[in-house]
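User: Please predict the structure of the protein below. I'd like the answer in structure-token form so I can feed it into my own downstream comparison script.

Assistant: Understood. Taking the following sequence of 287 residues as input:
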Amino acid sequence: MRVADDPDLAGWISRAEAEAFSERLGVRFERPDLATLRALLRGYLGRLPFQNVGMLARYGRSPTVAEILEDMRRGRGGPCNVMNPFLAALLARLGYDVRLLSGSMQQPDCHIALSVRVEGRWRWLDAGNGHPYLEPVAFDDEAPRSHAGLTFRLARRGPGAYAVEHQLPDASAWKASYALTLAPRPLRFFAAMIEQHHTAPGFGPFLTGLRIIRCPGGSLTAIRDDVVMTGRDLIQKTRIGDRGALLAAVAEHFGDVDLPVGEALRALARAGRPLFDDPPSRPGAPP
């Protein structure tokens, strides 16, 4: 099913809103060509964080469509069920032929990816996996790409089947990040998966840890639990020692985004997954 025909997705954003959002990403939209698609993807991953902070703050329930749209209008980003469907709706409204694809990681059909037909070729996009997949890749192109410390490729696994593979740090081999098929899916196909991600700790990593990631200017800026990662080619990793240092790191790297980090940390603590041993802030102290 084309995203433009999906009754659960086609009404997410109007043409005027899509053009205004494109401007916010730093892209003046003129036509749905490949160069514009690349620019939109880079702007999207550079400005909007892949994050599970809002997911933790809403612990135990999936967001409503209204909440997703409000988060995106405020530049908050979100996990794959926010980032990729919204990007699909945006691109479809701008005139691209977009489909949702199902990806399998730890669980079957637990991830949403995209395919976009542009300039006569279908191309894979993914703005919702927390990795610097900074360009669309044609499905018949297995050449490696390197961005922000990651080398990846799209490898054919059979008729209509592919794997997104990452090169190991020593460049000795490749490891599959996830498998996907070309069968287009409507948004409702993912409803049970989205519910499980938001309600079942262990179904994925997002109710048991912290993720805030984006790629401004093609570089990586990421917080994964108690580690900050920054860089373009060589990624520097800095361990965070306590809650105060984490809040300072969020303010330094994501201070332009209104993220309920305090609520997320409290949710992790209530779930028995605290990131740090230090107690929560005293009344009157920063959240």
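That's the full token string. The longest strand covers residues 150-158.
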